[in-house]
Amino acid sequence: MPLNLPKIQPTLERQLALLGFELVLAESAKEGRDTVLRLYIDHLDGETSRRKVTLDDCVAANDGLVAWMDVEFPDLREEVALEISSPGMERPLVRQAHFRRFAGRLCRIQTKLPLNGQKRFKGWIGDCTPEAVTIEEDGALKTIPLVEIQKARLAPFDEGKTPPAKHVKAVLTGLPDMDSSIDEAGVETSPAVEE
Which terminus of the chain faces fewer neighbouring Cβ atoms within 10 Å, N or C? Predict the structure, then answer.
């Protein structure tokens, strides 16, 4: 039976929630002849607790899922290897709540299609609505529709090497930023400020 991730993901999310975990990201990969189902998890109260996912947490989630999958998806369990992991330092950003939680942090985003000729972005996370996230990249504010994001991750190892944000603070505090404007494609931009 081939792995139909979109079909089983809501069920996996519900089961992990019963175990006290949030499914951050689910992905499948072929490794030789084997199919691996990788689940990146966080504590269900991750928004407020900031507790890190430990090896014991991964083992508990794995044990709970394996017992459940043996009953609900026995054929799948025989054909797919299950890997449970913490989101790690370069945490995937999948939902609006993830971007909101890490506002002010540096991230890398890759879009499905080019936006104004660009598919790869690296910027400081600003405001996030249900439709889009605003990041500051090289002094310019850019709004990226969430539906256009192919993948996004935090970029903690680049934070020290990247010039600090000049405009994101205004976005986060709701203050007007007089340097920003909307370009003809509808992308909010701000000119780079020279020091």
Answer: C
